[in-house]
Specification:
It contains three helices and no strands. By secondary structure, the protein is mainly alpha-helical.
Length: 69
């Protein structure tokens, strides 16, 4: 699996909570954030308003790209 490295800035307290959760679950801090991101995507997928806004944005993008031809 290919990976992409991204930088995320968090408050010191959030970093400490992530480190604690990682230690308790015996996983890496990276895995804590990866799981949190997957959970966020699940929530967005279930959010009908978000899905409609995403579709509208993609349709506008497609129109813009079509105008470049």
């Amino acid at each position: 699996m290919q990976s992409k490295v991204i930088t995320v800035r968090v408050a010191p307290e959030e970093a400490q909570r992530a480190e604690l959760a990682a230690r308790v679950d015996e996983i890496s801090v990276n895995e804590v954030f990866r799981r949190a991101l997957l959970h966020y995507f699940e929530l967005k997928r279930a959010d009908a308003d978000f899905v409609e806004r995403a579709k509208a944005m993609l349709a506008r993008d497609a129109e813009l790209v079509g105008g470049l031809r």
